Amino acid sequence: AQSVTQPDIHITVSEGASLELRCNYSYGATPYLFWYVQSPGQGLQLLLKYFSGDTLVQGIKGFEAEFKRSQSSFNLRKPSVHWSDAAEYFCAVGSSTGANNLFFGTGTRLTVIP
Amino acid sequence: DADVTQTPRNRITKTGKRIMLECSQTKGHDRMYWYRQDPGLGLRLIYYSFDVKDINKGEISDGYSVSRQAQAKFSLSLESAIPNQTALYFCATSTFRNEQFFGPGTRLTVL
Predict the structure, then answer these.
(1) Residue A104: half-sphere exposure toward Cβ, Cα within 13 Å
(2) Cβ contact (<8 Å) for A94 and B33?
(3) How confident is the model over B34-53, as pLDDT tens digits?
(4) How far apart are CA B28 and CA B25, in angstroms?
């Protein structure tokens, strides 16, 4: 069965510090992987995606993620967090055949302290 | 203009009332989805449609129905609303690779 695990419900970091949000997935086929961000009162915005090729993908707002097939992980990173990065982050997995829907993790809420 | 729009943005209703949430998109995608979001539970899929003649139940379809009026329009109905349907509802469209684009959400409160 497909599933996505985001083990950290809430993370607090200082502005300027580095960030890593964890995502592990279980999927029976080659996955498509996504990270979305949701600011308070807003919809979800796509940060980055992995379909194939280079396992390190760059996204918007200075975020990157690395696909590690052996660990079934797709962790999100940012070298220096800004106060505006405070939001909820969702990892999602989908089928590479396009046949199925996205499966979302339960999210990680990021708090940034000055 | 936004690519995916939802109306209304906020709605308060009473138990037993019928309510419809509407979604329109200008992205030209065939695939559309309805999700609900509850704190700590992430997004859960209610219904999805891969084209105008295709409707599929998601993981939590009980108590909901949908209508795909056109490629660009996908409506969600609660035939008889109950308090545990209080949630944030999102419509989304996607490419064939499941890259999904979300609307701004509808906050529904059932009293």
Answers:
(1) 25
(2) no
(3) 999 998 888 999 999 999 99
(4) 7
Angstrom distance (rounded) from CA B85 to CA B55: 21
Spatial separation of the C-alpha atoms in residues A100 and A82, rounded to whole Å = 35
Residue A6 carries which side chain, given as an amino acid letter? Q
pLDDT digits (tens, 9 = 90+) for B43-96: 999 999 999 999 999 989 999 999 999 999 999 999 999 999 999 999 999 988
Residues in chain B with CB shorter than 8 Å from the CB of A102 are 94, 98, 100
Are B98 and A32 in contact (CB < 8 Å)?
yes
Break chain A down into helix, strand, coil percent, rounded to 5: 10, 55, 40
**CB–CB of A43 and B45 under 8 A?**
no
Residues 6+ apart with CB under 8 A from A91: A4, A6, A21, A23, A25, A33, A34, A35, A36, A74, A76, A104, A105
**CB-CB neighbors (< 8 A) of B102 in chain A:** 36, 43-45
Q: Would you state the structure tokens that stand for residue A13, as one six-digit string?
A: 């970091």
Residue B87 C-alpha, separation from nearest chain A C-alpha, in angstroms? 13
CA distance linking residue B8 with residue B75, whole number of Å: 11
**Neighbouring-strand partners of residue B65:** B77
Instruction: Please give the pLDDT value at position A100.
Output: 67
